[in-house]
Specification:
The chain is flat. The chain contains 38 helices and 28 strands. With 1097 residues, it is α+β, with helices and mostly antiparallel strands. The longest helix is centred in the last third of the chain and has 43 residues, at 1005-1047. It comes from Coemansia aciculifera.
Length: 1097
Amino acid sequence: MAPVTGGGSERMPLLPGGGASGHNNGALRNGNPFGVEPEQLTDMLDPKDVDKLLDLGGPEQICKALLVDAKVGLKQREQVGSGSGGSEPFQARREVFGRNTLPEAHAVTFLQLLLAAYNDRTLIMLTIASVVSLVVGVYDDLLGSHKNDDVKVGWVEGAAIFLAVIVVCFTNAINDYQKEKQFQKLNAKKEDRTVKTLRDGNEVEIGVQEINVGDILLIEPGDIIPVDGVYLSGHNMTCDESSATGESDAVKKGAASDGRDPFILSGAKVLEGVGSMVVVAVGPRSFYGKIMMAMRQGESSETPLQLKLDVLAEQIAKYGMSAAIILLITLTIKYLVRCALAPEFPPASIMFSQFVSIVIEAITVVVVAVPEGLPMAVTISLAYATTKMLKDGNLVRQLAACETMGGATVVCTDKTGTLTQNLMTVVRGVVADVELKSRAEAQAFYKTLPKPAQDLMLESIAVNSTAFEGPDEQGRIEFIGSKSECALLGFGKVCGLDYRAARADSEPVRVYPFSSEKKTMTTIVPVAGESSQFRVHAKGASEIILRSCTKYLAKDGSVSDIDQAVRNELLRRISTFANNALRTFALAYKTIDSTELGACSDDEAPLSDLIWIGVMGIQDPLRPGVHQAVEDCHRAGVIVRMITGDNIETARAIARDAGILTKGGQAITGPQWRKMTPEQQHAILPRLQVMARSSPLDKQIMVERLQERHEVVAMTGDGTNDSPALKLADVGFSMGIAGTEVAKEASDIILMDDDFKSIVKALGWGRAVNDSVRKFLQFQLTVNITAVLLTFISSVFSADGQSALTAVQLLWVNMIMDTLAALALATEGPTAVVLDRPPQQRNSALITFEMWRMILGQALFQVVINLLLLNHGLDIFHLPATKQGVAVLRTMVFNSFVFLQVFNQINCRRIQPNEFNVFANIQNDTGFLLVQVFIVVSQWLIITYGGIAFSTVPLNNIQWTGTLFIGMLSLPVGLAIRMLPDLSACFGLESANSPAQQHLPEVSTARMRIEGSVKDVQRAVKFFGAIRNAQQTRKFGDSMSDNFLSEDPCLSPSTARAPTMASGMTTAAPSVPVSTSSSWTKVKSAVANNSKSNNRD
């Protein structure tokens, strides 16, 4: 560790402006009731300056200046300063030093979002075109060819285009504004967390916003420090300050007099150790606050799906631009040719007006072709999904995780709190050879124990723990801390333990906190009445503690040596508890003198030659619905692996109950996993379902190996040391209740309820997001192709060069296929069927063969039906060949085109090849139904009252029915297209059911079950063959058997066969010489030899 230097000249501030307060340290501002100014406290932090700390008198004098007792903390109803009798608690403190909240960030205003939405080249081009059209139209109405008309309508088209541009801008801005508000709420919830502090001498939990300068903060491993402070006391505290200072090395914290760093910066992560600190800077004055204020202008990153769609949209836009340019050139040439062939060349004003119309039409084609709604569809779908996921217990921190989760192929989950309820209770135990058989017998069990065992057990439970009793969020008094420690303290309380008194009588001199690697916690306390004697209390994983024990407490309270028989008996009891799905914790101790205490390392606990006190069996029942959730994952083609710190027997038992460990699956321990080569790990991975006694490194290696196999890995974690695995995983889930702040910071999604079922819900939402975007993509490409082809063909081949749809009509169609379709198709939640198919491949194509088949089939049908209407509609609907009849026909073409899109949206609700019922679950798809109602009502208003702007005339009931019927034809056509054969291989496209799209597990659970059943049969065949062989040996004897076999060739060793349980399956029955003294010995020996024989074969 780099030493903390004295004097501000040798180290520059890490932040701009740091250390330059310009304040005279000797004077206090008027009205400051404290003995120190805020600037004096912050100046010593950036850069870290021990001299300035010593100038203030060190931590003790700082506490006095801040009017706080380091052992008591602040008073809950503190009143400081003159005239503060009726003020709120901490008011004077907060007026001087500030609150631990940052000023609200400058929110993006609606006007800024509106301008951002308008900052689009296409919309700007349309605006210019609308202005030109408006000017030309007004000129034509007032001075041109229409100056004598009764109704002046030349301005209408330009105004309508401008109005459409405004509507598009406002729609996008409103969507963005709502999205910003939603994510502000999510971020506010993300920052809502609690810390432990001393108030009135009691440990309490308060929100980070309630921390004041002068608070005594209690620190544990995994905490992210929310404020700046100065170290007061602690044991073996190490912090990672890389997020604040950029220095990657962990920094040991301690008193400046010991040569350690006494400054604890906000944003630092506590890696190990426990301690306390006095808060000296909060809010914008803290180190973290200064960074946050400097980084307020954060940019939101796009998700992988958005980036992929952006590329697709750009490619489509290029084709649309090419079509628009060709259309512009073709119509211009066509018009000039018509003008040249006309008897009289038209005047310049008419030609200019016509050229403006052609340009507007070409620009409108670009507007229709450019699928600007694709990224918006992803945004709407993700914003909707994340809001709904929060209600399901998933707080999404990274948007990309939502869509990535849809393709997850493996879920690696913790046990405690995720699969189980995290309600630990001591239900079994053995102490001093006395057994506890149920929770109800706790008091009787305690009274049965010898006095030494009683005292040692309760002292170990009380002092070797960081849990404490306090009010929960509902105000109920309960134990707070590690669930296992809470269970032990709860058991001690039933036995009459007053843990506060025990801790007060035995103040720790050394603490070695629990760590995932060591799986033990050790505390050294003075022995009561013995000045130079100290007691080492250790607890942790039973087999690890047992390996360190050489003696044990006997039934009479005496200490005896552990011989092999005793060790085997203890291991048997541990195994019995574990096989009953109990988590086992061992308690042990030893006594050392002051010399041995001085020789103890700061990093390694003295765990040799311990005396075994006993073992406790803690039960944590499975959460309701976990088994079904695991079955849902298997049904969805997602493999679930359980990674836990429990021993192998407990892990197997719980994994079987949860449905994770199936027949044919394998379970190993972390040490076994680490000893394997990468090749061996890859070989076992397809069948590996449980890893016990795992370390965080095991999780990290597991993620690496799975990703090497191109798996999409979701990993859960709650501990500080789980953060590398959470970061490495494709989707990291941290625990909202039991998770440390480091784990939450490293994760992509926080499980607010720590429940495995929430992971399955996230899986469903992820698939729903991917499906929603594909639905929208299929719909939009269909409208794009149809609108561009119809506009191009009708404009080029019509006599007057007029398109089937006007520019304003096309803009309305563009709104239907962009904003409204995104709202309709991107807001359907997950249904049960999304888990009935395997996950998608990581790099699968966005558009499958089935989607292309539907896009091209529907586009071809719609183009043909509209061109048919345009050219033969007068005859079909018996309309007169007059100007009014043509106007009615063009209105019917426009109406039919819109209703074809309305019913094609229903088609696009289902994109999987075997989903024929497009109306499935439509009654629950409220967003879709509301959008369809809005489109139909708007279309009726446009047809009936929008004649001038949209170039339409009112239709009668028969004409409405006819156009509605034409639109409905989209449904049977869609059904017919779905029934076409799969010709993806002929066109080089990916079918939805092809291996290129679907990720299938290398070894499915069904296959493992079959393989497991086959092995069971093989073992049964071997067993019964061995029994038969032993019986033959016992009956005939060695020599008689040999003579008999030599006389009868049908029973020679090479040809002897016997029928088995399974029809058609046989096994060899070799002659094995076995003593006749014990039939069981014969059977075991025969089984062993038979197995060796089969292995050789």
